[in-house]
Amino acid sequence: xxxxxxxxxxxxxxxxxxxxxxxxxxxxxxxxxxxxxxxxxxxxxxxxxxxxxxxxxxxxxxxxxxxxxxxxxxxxxxxxxxxxxxxxxxxxxxxxxxxxxxxxxxxxxxxxxxxxxxxxxxxxxxxxxxxxxxxxxxxxxxxxxxxxxxxxxxxxxxxxxxxxxxxxxxxxxxxxxxxxxxxxxxxxxxxxxxxxxxxxxxxxxxxxxxxxxxxxxxx
Length: 219
Fold this sequence. Notes:
The chain contains seven helices and seven strands; from the N terminus they run αααβαβαββαβαββ. With 219 residues, it is α/β, with parallel strands linked by helices. α2 (19-35) runs antiparallel to α5 (111-124).
């Protein structure tokens, strides 16, 4: 079964995943299935397609990561941050495009979700920093900011700009509208890639972010 899962994920995101890594993902799946009954970690119904919808979806960002310090914002159930940390725990992870000394920090303001992420790290035996905090209160130095389903692009650019980091964000069909809105406040360079796992999904990679106007606050 693990071999079949490996083939599916590898074919989607062009990665080589060891059996140890796949076993860690299997542990992850078991934990999220159990915890989902008590708290909302992922969208309802998506656990039936866990490997594609969550694991492969997360791992498609690997080729865009720069540096060795990754901050995953609004991690929730751990995507993409925890998935990246699990791949980063195997000996051959640098062959998959990850930095040799990759360090992942997952931040979420919901204490229950932070506890869940800590349990995933403990049960899979991987090293990942889990921080229960509002992103506005977090300090540190990071090279790459990742996020999936956390906020609109304008807010994500504000976060990436504050940390002077590159941003890699998994987005949906409203991305073009979000870009247009964000351009009222920021100047930035970006590339858009079609999602490898979702027909309407996009991956936007942003860099050289400069704020030129105040962020609009809706009444």
